[in-house]
Amino acid sequence: VRAYALRAADSSRVAGWILNTGGGGAASRVTALRGAVLEVRGMRNGKYVVGWWDCREGVVDGTDTVWVRDGVLRVACPVIDWDKAVIAERVSGVNAGKVSGVKTRKVSGRPSGILRGSGHGGE
């Protein structure tokens, strides 16, 4: 598994891509990743909505709401049976509970995300 993340200059948004490299790349041979946690440091404290994209279908297939404390966003990943894209946005008031969608945004800085987990495995 490889994970990449870019944090917005104001540290209130992050976009990432998780590549499931298990099984050599053929869709029928990829081993699902279970139990992983995405961790991004340097975020603003507060409430975030995290949207997960199914990269085969091109649709949001789930959302989570998490709180960033001490500048670290931690969120349990869904089962990653293929590549996943992820966007986390700090929310308040009217935006709470919604993912605004894919937008082009200027970001700066170096990649800031890591993926921690138990690795590939079966049920």
Task: Tag the structure with descriptive keywords.
43% strand, mainly beta, 123 residues, 0% helix, elongated, 8 strands, disordered C terminus, five-stranded antiparallel β-sheet
Write the layout of secondary structure elements.
Layout: E1 2-7, E2 13-19, E3 37-41, E4 46-54, E5 59-68, E6 72-76, E7 84-90, E8 113-116
Antiparallel strand pairs: 1-2, 2-7, 3-6, 3-8, 4-5, 4-7
Instruction: Characterize the main sheet.
Output: 5 strands, antiparallel
Work out the helicity level.
under 10%
The backbone outline, from C-alpha atoms, is elongated
What structural class do you assign from the helix and strand content? Answer: mainly beta
Question: What do these coordinates show?
Answer:
Helices cover 0% and strands 43% of the residues. It has no helices and 8 strands. β1 (2-7) and β2 (13-19) form a beta hairpin. The radius of gyration is 14 Å and the shape is elongated.
Task: Report a brief summary of the structure.
Helix content is 0%, strand content 43%. The protein has 123 residues and is mainly β.
